[in-house]
Amino acid sequence: MTSYSFLALRVGVLAISLAAAATVRAEDGITVYNAQHASLTQAWADDFTKETGIKVTIRKGSDTELANQIVQEGASSPADVFVTENSPAMVLVEKAGLFETLPKDILDQVPAQFRPASGRWMGVAARSTVFAYDKRKLKEADLPKSMLDLADPKWKGRWAASPSGADFQAIVGALLVLKGEKVTADWLKAMKDNSSAYRGNSVAMKAVNAGEVEGAVIYHYYYFGDQAKTAENSNNVALHYFRGQDPGAFLSTSGAGVLESSKHKKEAETFVKWMSGKHGQAVLREGDSFEYAIGNGEASNPKLEPIAKLDAPKVEPSQLDSKKVTELMTAAGLL
């Protein structure tokens, strides 16, 4: 065999090896640590795989649980993508320096208000804070003008929330950013005196429906999801939107980011781009999650209050401080 033939053979073998390696990577797919609702992320994953052929393996957990797990795993984490319900968990991982900076063309798929200035992760959906109330007991004139009004003693024993959940803690995080520590601490202390604690937004809404309390601070989509099914837990409920850039009009960002330690970064970025792009946002619009689509030019489910009419306050997602929120809520006796 000539040296030329031997070299050609080696080049051919190398090309086959590289092709095989690429095939293995594609077959391995990506691992997603998912703290979003399981059905929504599964719908995203299924449609993404159909379109791209990239397999998605999902590991489920809560916002805080998975964020802390990623921090503990560090560079050894098997996760390629982290998806959350609320942004404080994303901030925890970002502060640990574990996210890859996303390319500009991916970040630019959503408005700046739904992504941190760092570009280390981005929003893929949003949910609005609302006051779900018993329409048999309260008229429009009776409703609180601001979420802060719920600290008034006249609301004692009349409203509820789910203080142990990541959803409510994100709302408190926004209150902290907008009004500062003293106002937040005072409001939480009044909440301890005035409110009833339930475990989960849907349970709090069910309590309103059953007449146990007159209202509850929750996210909007629990109501719409129940209405789309049997409505048995929301027949007596209506939603009050605080608007006016009130803390109670806070829009929480559901985030997605690529781990710096990912061995499948190209595929991982493709998934984040797909979720925040036309097809992924269509899953929000046409599916049964009832979360807001936030992609540029993308419409949400027509049953929802238009996002432009919510008049939500602008809160930099990376400013939500889960550690400080936990401290304040613990001091108030809510955790």
UniProtKB/TrEMBL annotation:
Molecular function terms, GO-annotated: metal ion binding
Matching InterPro entries: Ferric-bd (IPR026045), SBP (IPR006059)
Pfam families linked to this entry: SBP_bac_8
Positions of Fe cation binding: 37, 85, 221-222
GO cellular component, one term: outer membrane-bounded periplasmic space
UniProt-listed SUPFAM superfamilies: Periplasmic binding protein-like II
Keyword entries, A-Z: Iron, Metal-binding, Periplasm, Signal
Family per record: Belongs to the bacterial solute-binding protein 1 family.
Descriptive protein name: Iron ABC transporter substrate-binding protein
